Amino acid sequence: MKKIIFLLSILQYTFTFAQKELNFKIHYTPETNYNQTVQQTSEMSVKYITSEEILQKLKEKGIQNPTITSFSSKIEMVLKTGKLSNAKSFPITMEFINTTSNDGKKSIPDGTIIYGVGTIDDLPRLDSIVSKNLDENYKKALLQTLQGTFSQLSFPEKKMKIGDSFSQKTPLTMPIADVSINMLITTTYKLLSITNNKASLDVDLIFTLDSNITKYNIKATGQGKGIMVYDLNTQFISKYETETLMELFLKADKFDLEINAKSGFIQTVAASKT
Questions:
Q1: What is the mean pLDDT of residues 56-61?
Q2: CA of 75: how far to CAs of 6, 98, 131, 164, 267, in Å?
Q3: Domain hosting residue 96, numbered range
Q4: CB atoms within 10 A of CB 31
Q5: What is the pLDDT of residues 13-30, one digit of tens each?
Q6: What is the pLDDT of residues 82-134, one digit of tens each?
Q7: Least CB-packed of 121, 182, 229, 265 within 10 Å?
Q8: Which H or E run contains 24?
Q9: 8 Å CB contact between 207 and 185
Q10: Is residue 264 part of a domain?
Q11: Is residue 56 part of a domain?
């Protein structure tokens, strides 16, 4: 009886220890369906600070001060991986099931299918699009955009314990007035807990100005918070959620601009073997 209790104690200790650390690695696996939903929201306020004369001209052109715009969208898609070949690569397809937005437009028509190749050690490479409602130029631009989204999954493989963290830097370009403003997003991920093979990580974002524009005096700051849920069984992110707020001030000769931008992002992924 004592031996059984001792063995149970060892098993309990081993399980508890295993739940305090993980080998963090993001990758797609062969013969798996990844059902994904992406929801995005944004709200931007642009305030013009200038003379009454210019404000009146803006009003005559139908431009409100401040100008407030909002946008929301939802994309439902499934990424399917095929059988492993050459012990390294496998085919993938991305099918867009349903896209909706508050402006009634579909940036990606339902039924659009994208083909590519995935590998065991690297993220997928997309190579072609099949869609009756898209011209070739749009297909090319969309392919580049979607390929760029995979870079957001390019996390370093590393062992993590509770309390460990790592940071990544991502460039962001914003067209404002007649210039492009470059910013740098520093995202820090901190492992909070591991329960039932699901790891929760705190997400902290800091936006900093990365431009040297002499034409205007520009100040910009931003921050954000969120959470990532990592599935140890599938070695993939099952949920990623962030809310960010950015403030920008641009001073020109005849006017100033105050811009406040708030955005939200929620992505959920359910992975299952075919």
A1: 93
A2: 52, 6, 16, 33, 9
A3: 28-273
A4: 12
A5: 444 444 688 899 998 999
A6: 999 887 899 999 999 999 999 988 888 999 999 999 988 888 999 999 988 88
A7: 121
A8: strand 21-24
A9: yes
A10: yes
A11: yes
- Token readout for 154 is 């390019």
pLDDT of residue 179: 81
* Predicted pLDDT of residue 17: 45
Distances (CA, A) of 156 to 23, 122, 162, 217, 238: 10, 11, 17, 37, 18
Overall size of the chain counted in residues = 274
Task: Give the rounded percent of residues in the chain with a pLDDT score beyond 70.
Answer: 93
Element (H, E) at 115: strand 113-119
Q: Report the Cα 251 to chain-centroid distance in Å.
A: 31
Instruction: Determine the average pLDDT of the residues in 177-203.
Output: 93
State the average pLDDT for the chain.
Answer: 88
Within a domain: residue 3?
no
* Distances 32 to 28, 75, 93 between C-alpha atoms, Å: 8, 20, 11
Instruction: List % helix, strand, coil for the chain (3-state, nearest 5).
Output: 15, 60, 25
Instruction: Evaluate whether residue 6 is within a structural domain.
Output: no
The better pLDDT of the pair 52, 19 is held by 52
d(C-alpha 135, C-alpha 120), whole Å? 33
Report the number of distinct structural domains present in the chain. Answer: 1
In single-letter form, the type of residue at position 167 comes to S
What are the distances in angstroms from CA 266 to CA 11, 38, 56, 269?
A: 37, 6, 40, 10
CA angle 153, 157, 162 (to 5 degrees): 100
Element (H, E) at 55: helix 52-60
Cα separation, 97 vs 78, in Å, equals: 7
Residue 131 three-state SS: coil
What is the structure's pLDDT at 75? Answer: 95
We report the CATH number of the domain holding residue 145 as 2.30.230
Which helix (H) or strand (E) is 128 found in, with range?
Answer: strand 125-130
